[in-house]
Amino acid sequence: MSNRIDERRMASVRAQTAPDRRHDYKMRMRRSDAMVTALWASGAAAVALFLFYGGAGKFGTVADTFTSLGIIAGLLGTDFVLVMLVLAARIPTIDRTVGHDRAIAVHRSLGKPALYLLLGHGVLLLIGYGMASGINPIAEIGPMLAIPDMPLAFIGLGLLIVVVITSLVAVRRRFSYEAWHLVHLLSYIAVLVAVPHQLSVGGILASGSFERAYWLALYIFAFGAIATYRFGEPLLSSVRHRLRVKSVDQIAPGVASITLSGRSLRSLHSAGGQFFVWRFWTGRTWWHSHPISLSAVPTDSTVRITVRNLGSGSNAITRVPVGTRVWFEGPYGVFTDAGRTAPKLAVVVAGIGITPVRAFLEDSNIQPGEATILLRASTREETYLWDEVLELARKKGAHVYTMVGKRSRSGRGWMTEEDARRRVTLRSIFPDLKNSDLYICGPTAWLDLVEAEARANGIPEHQLHTERFDW
Amino acid sequence: MRIRAALGGIFASAAVLGIGWQFGSAAASTFAAHAASTATTPAPTGTTAAAAPAPAASAAAPAPAPASGRSGTFVGDVASTQFGDMQVEIIVSNGKITDIKALKLTDQGGRSVQISNYAAPILRTEALKAQSAKINSVSGATYTSDGYATSLQSAIDKAGL
């Protein structure tokens, strides 16, 4: 009986909230599609600059063909690099639409193509020019370097090679994040020193032309976005909100909840589930910053984060003294209530991944019976914040399942051996999975397994929300 | 939705490329027309103003007068290079070259135009300073420099400087 009443109420609630969510989702997708379209169009525009210049007629001889292809490769490669800068700039619209992690995934996927195009640019032009003047491509390097601004362009290409190589997964592991990031900043220089040769040697971007104005506008947009959202805005925000460490509470071995106090924090409009990139101003920690999720909805004067010791950086952070000044960038991320598209809510969370989920649950507007939560931990000690989540779930009428123990060796790798033997599946925990938004947060390897099973169960892609905790 | 993004990207790209190509071919044809019209320009439009005696006649005379009296515009011969034709005209006032205009610059292949655009002002400045065609080649623009000097020399010859 009570079940039926519940269901009827659920249905009316669904009628109220579902259209809104669908509308929000549609708007988000429209923006996302517009961004993808713009990305394609910017590449096309780079090639069109060459055509605009009469490039279609410059394929008459073999040498011309090499030269023309080289110019196209250069234009396209540079466009890719500028798009990469825009994607890495953490522009709020992009973050809210597709999420920072998705933007960075696209950024990464463009890295190698951009390098290949720019290397191709150099090689093809050496071949093309060499053939035109009847010398081999290597011998052409000399005359090429004699052209003003060309030595700078060669330096830029060299820097770019260094940046991409240090970002290859295998190589990147050998560096600390900070060292890698410092090298990565060279890409700004690499892109900038390439500008003079584009303007002086490149007839396509002749002075006073529309093409030159367009090209410079691209540069100004990309570097403006970086300057604004990576440097200016975080700095102003940090100064304005004056965050300091208020208290550090060890909630488990190696895990601490840090409360920060500051001014007018509501104006940050951070939603539960989002993260900030934090910088703690102590002698040992000021030079590295860390993305850490809020573990509670902020008040106007305090925010709370929960962090586990991982590596040397986080280790130092759990021991920062009270009163430490804190700078931040953010809020970032779409692991929030705003991403909901389906009537039901399913949450799967492991280990320290609990932090954004804790804040997300507190912030989300869920009806009794709407949400089901699965909490996963390897040991009893790693059940961080479970008491708080259980309390929230009780208040909001959410079902909670827990799984504690080492991962199964025989069955599904994301659950415990015992549950695998009992033939537990994602479907048995969340019978209404297809009508649910599934929020998953935890270590990447574990998360991938849960995600794969959810996909195998036919959950639509837009109902999957993940936050990978690699840090 | 992803399909819409892909389609949007494809159509937008096609449109942008189409516009670029359309404008590009239009620009190429006007460029060709322009080149053709400059090529048919009557060669020497120079007039001998003050100096009545022909320069050939006064060649033996040591007097500096005929040179100093010359004024007008003189078009040099077309100098062919591997990268296209070069042609300049000079504006002479009282026996001094006051300006040099490039009528045709090497334009075969994207880079020649770039080099020409960059080298021509340098060559012009040098020639104005030297008041002759004895100018240094611009590095990286040897063919352009040679063609420029050749055409310039013929213009100077025509002006009888």
Produce the secondary structure layout.
The complex is a heterodimer of chains A (471) and B (161).
Chain A: H1 2-52, H2 62-88, H3 92-98, H4 100-132, H5 137-146, H6 150-167, H7 169-172, H8 177-184, H9 186-193, H10 195-200, H11 210-241, E1 243-252, E2 255-261, E3 275-280, E4 290-293, E5 302-308, H12 311-317, E6 325-332, E7 344-350, H13 354-363, E8 371-377, H14 386-396, E9 399-404, H15 417-421, H16 426-429, E10 436-442, H17 444-456, E11 464-468
Parallel strand pairs in A: 7-8, 7-10, 8-9, 10-11
Antiparallel strand pairs in A: 1-2, 1-6, 2-5, 3-4, 3-6
Chain B: H1 2-39, H2 65-69, E1 72-75, E2 79-81, E3 84-93, E4 96-104, H3 110-130, H4 142-159
Antiparallel strand pairs in B: 1-3, 2-3, 3-4
Helix pairs in contact in B: 3-4
Describe this structure in words.
The complex is a heterodimer of chains A (471) and B (161). With 471 residues, chain A is an alpha/beta fold. Chain A has three domains: 16-236, Four Helix Bundle (Hemerythrin (Met), subunit A) (Up-down Bundle), CATH 1.20.120; 243-332, Translation factors (Elongation Factor Tu (Ef-tu), domain 3, Beta Barrel), CATH 2.40.30; 339-468, Rossmann fold (3-Layer(aba) Sandwich), CATH 3.40.50.80. Helices cover 54% and strands 16% of the residues of chain A. Chain A contains 17 helices and eleven strands. Chain A has helices spanning 2-52, 62-88, 92-98, 100-132, 137-146, 150-167, 169-172, 177-184, 186-193, 195-200, 210-241, 311-317, 354-363, 386-396, 417-421, 426-429, 444-456; strands at residues 243-252, 255-261, 275-280, 290-293, 302-308, 325-332, 344-350, 371-377, 399-404, 436-442, 464-468. In chain A, a hairpin with a 2-residue loop joins strand 1 and strand 2. In chain A, helix 4 packs across helix 6 (150-167) and helix 13 runs parallel beside helix 14 (386-396). Chain A is elongated. The two termini of chain A are 48 Å apart. By secondary structure, chain B is an alpha+beta fold. Chain B has four helices and four strands. In chain B, strands 1, 2, 3 and 4 form a four-stranded antiparallel beta sheet that branches. In chain B, strand 3 and strand 4 form a beta hairpin. The longest helix of chain B has 38 residues, at 2-39. Mean pLDDT of chain B is 72; it is low at 31-67.
